[in-house]
Amino acid sequence: MSKKRRLKPKVKIGLLVILCLCCILGVFSWLHINQDTQSDEPVETVATLCIDPGHGGYDAGTIGADGSYEKDINLEIALAVGEEIEKEEPRIKIIYTRDSDEITWPENEEEDLKARVQFAQENKADYYLSIHMNSNEDPGAFGYESYVRQNDATSQAIAENIAEELDESGWEYNRGILFVEEYPLYVVSEQTIPSLLFEAGYMSNYQECTDLQQSKNQKVIAKAIAKSYIHQILKDKNLD
């Protein structure tokens, strides 16, 4: 009679370990494939936000107390706002009038402003946000403010929300909401969608100009704006 071979205890344990590892690897592979499949699915767009970094190219905008250019800070904050919204709420589509220092319109102020409004219209934007920096003959002036149309309750609500978020974060100070009927701004006045021009601070103030160039402060401003737009858009779409 032939003897049946019995596996030694160490061999049994080894096989069990190998079997467990195979199972774990199989689960991870399934999860990875499943995630890849899900990521390929199109994300539903609930709204399109056009972000306009003010100035650019030939137009430097305000020259800061330290010689820096407004157009550069506008772009940094604008891109940060877009990135934050895309990360937190990918259903909101972000488009930019410019995403670098290059511009696609004539080097003419009138044509420049028209091109920004037209860009939003042609791309069927639902909301419009223009990022700018301020300047004043008084080097002590500082703070942020928003410009909207009087009949644009949506943008007024967004501006109020931005102020609340910034106040909580410690970024000072809120100079309030101004209406373009009194302070005409073409890119807001000529829009028919909710439109807001946000002046993040005064570059004529040396300290604030320096603060505005710091990445951590730009992120604070960008997050406040992003949260406010996400909140309002989801509310408008009954998705909050």
Per-chain topology:
Elements: H1 9-39, E1 47-53, H2 70-88, E2 92-96, H3 109-122, E3 127-134, E4 144-148, H4 153-169, E5 174-179, H5 186-189, E6 195-202, H6 206-212, H7 215-236
Parallel strand pairs: 1-2, 1-3, 3-6, 4-5
Antiparallel strand pairs: 4-6
Helix pairs in contact: 2-7, 4-7
Could you please describe the fold and organization of this structure?
Residues 1-7 and 30-39 have low confidence and may be disordered. Helix 2 packs across helix 7 (215-236). With 240 residues, this protein is an alpha/beta fold. The chain is globular, with a radius of gyration of 26 Å. Helix content is 48%, strand content 16%. Strands 2-1-3-6-4-5 form a 6-stranded mixed sheet. The N and C termini lie far apart (77 Å). The protein is built from 7 helices and 6 strands. This is Cell wall hydrolase/autolysin. Its EC number is 3.5.1.28.
The CATH homology group name of the largest domain: Zn-dependent exopeptidases
For this entry, what is the oligomeric state of its chains? Answer: single chain
Strand pairing plus helix content: what structural class? alpha/beta
Q: Order of SSEs, N→C?
A: HEHEHEEHEHEHH
CATH class placement of the largest domain: Alpha Beta
Q: Which spans have pLDDT < 50 for at least 5 consecutive residues?
A: 1-7, 30-39
Q: What coarse outline follows from CA principal-axis ratios?
A: globular
What is the domain total for the residues? 2
CA gyration radius, whole angstroms:
26 Å
* Strands in their spatial order, largest beta sheet: 2-1-3-6-4-5
